[in-house]
Design goal:
Layout lengths: L1 H30 L4 H10 L3 H13 L3 H12 L2 H7 L11 H6 L3 H8 L9 H29 L9 H17 L4 H17 L5 H14 L1 H4 L2 H12 L1
């Protein structure tokens, strides 16, 4: 109960954000002719906020599977280096590991990376509950948005910018909570270089690949000393 309560309290800000963002997605989806059933299935099985916003236009425009796959890779490529940084945290997650990997959104990543859990809280269960609660929040917001959009008329212009605003908030919060800004600076630096080289329309994938590569090469230098000792102890055990 202590672990569940702690996870619930920690995810309340995500609840507020996901209800609003999910509402936006549901309204946008309904405006294109797709109802609450689509919102539920997409939020349950895809569970990728920004990609779900993009998917609305892909569905409405009749995009091919190849185009959809390339767009999905482009939008979600950031999870390549998200995953790299979570290898040690999720190493001993047991049967929950596949779901933890699937449910690793930007907001969940922010919560599970922001410090150690307090004494008396089960670390593995905390990771799972944070992921599950956030997932449920997103499903609820999306379905509610589709239902509201079916009843009340909305002008959906500009709704898709809400995900960009959320990413800025998440980055700002991570910058304020962490003293080590090197990973963020690596991301910014590689992105600027790729923007100059490849241009605004083509820089995203090279930037994501470059960031993942640089963070992988610098992984030991960026890893806190305490975490290195913990990893070494786990390996010996």
């Amino acid at each position: 109960m202590k672990t569940a309560k702690y996870a619930l309290v920690r995810t309340l800000p995500v609840l507020a954000g996901y209800l609003v963002l999910g509402l936006g997605f549901g309204v946008l989806l309904e405006s294109k002719g797709y109802g609450a059933g689509w919102a539920f299935v997409m939020s349950t099985l895809i569970y990728a906020g920004s990609m779900q916003y993009v998917a609305v236009d892909l569905l409405a425009g009749g995009a091919s599977l190849i185009a959809a796959a390339l767009m999905t890779f482009t939008v979600n490529a950031r999870h390549l280096f998200y995953g790299i940084s979570m290898v040690e945290r999720y190493r001993d997650a047991g049967p929950a590991k596949p779901y933890l990997i699937f449910a690793l959104t930007d907001e969940t990543y922010s919560l599970v990376c922001s410090g150690d859990v307090p004494e008396g809280v089960d670390r593995k269960r905390y990771f799972f509950l944070v992921s599950l609660f956030d997932h449920l929040y997103w499903i609820a917001g999306s379905v509610l948005g589709a239902l509201v959009g079916a009843v009340l008329p909305f002008d959906s212009t500009g709704i898709d910018f809400s995900m960009t605003a959320l990413f800025l908030v998440v980055m700002t919060e991570q910058w304020r909570e962490n003293k080590d800004h090197r990973p963020a600076l690596v991301g910014l630096g590689v992105s600027v270089v790729c923007l100059v080289i490849f241009g605004a329309d083509e820089f995203l994938i090279p930037a994501m690949v470059g960031i993942a590569l640089v963070l992988t090469l610098l992984r030991r230098r960026l890893q806190p000393p305490a975490q290195e000792k913990e990893v070494t102890a786990d390996v010996r055990d």
